[in-house]
Design goal:
By secondary structure, this protein is of the alpha+beta class. The chain contains 7 helices and 4 strands; from the N terminus they run H-H-E-E-H-E-E-H-H-H-H. Helices cover 33% and strands 10% of the residues. The strands form 2 sheets. The chain has a two-stranded antiparallel sheet with strand order 1-2. Strands 3-4 form a two-stranded antiparallel sheet.
């Protein structure tokens, strides 16, 4: 007896990680009941017409390079389409978030995490210094900085009470 195949599973990859990623991508953008909808479909982010079929998505994106990679939109305000998507690690994706604060230090403009990595500084140390009122130039100094040398702010004065 011959069984009828559902057209959406003709690709034979229903259990693949790429298929799972594709389904989640579509759910985020199309299903108003999805918890993530408000950050994707609710903000107007769509899946391009070509990618409404898995076989086209897989043809364009291919296999993900490793289990550590997932789909990432290069322009976080843009749609899911070939010209705006890539396979990326969590580190790359975290640096591509819409809520990242961008700084310029020694002529390089990047997120604080990237600047710390480029300048061999500890992120937690630099972040703490900046939360105490230090500028990016003051915070990116390597080694110990005397607490007294950090700028006096109203917040620091209130902390001392």
């Amino acid at each position: 007896m011959e069984t009828k195949k559902h057209h959406q599973y003709k690709h034979g990859q229903r259990k693949s990680s790429e298929y799972r990623i594709w389904r989640h991508m579509r759910t985020r953008c199309e299903n108003t009941n999805s918890p993530a909808y408000k950050w994707y479909g609710g903000k107007g982010i769509k899946v391009c017409d070509r990618w409404l079929e898995f076989k086209n998505f897989f043809e364009d994106m291919g296999k993900r390079p490793s289990p550590r990679h997932s789909i990432d939109r290069i322009n976080v305000e843009g749609d899911y389409e070939l010209s705006n998507c890539r396979w990326a690690t969590m580190k790359t994706q975290q640096r591509n978030r819409s809520n990242n604060v961008i700084y310029t230090f020694k002529g390089v403009t990047a997120s604080l995490a990237e600047l710390c990595e480029l300048n061999n500084c500890k992120y937690k140390t630099v972040h703490m210094r900046m939360s105490k009122g230090a500028s990016i130039d003051e915070a990116m100094v390597q080694g110990r900085v005397a607490y007294r040398t950090l700028p006096v702010t109203i917040e620091r004065l209130l902390e001392c009470k």
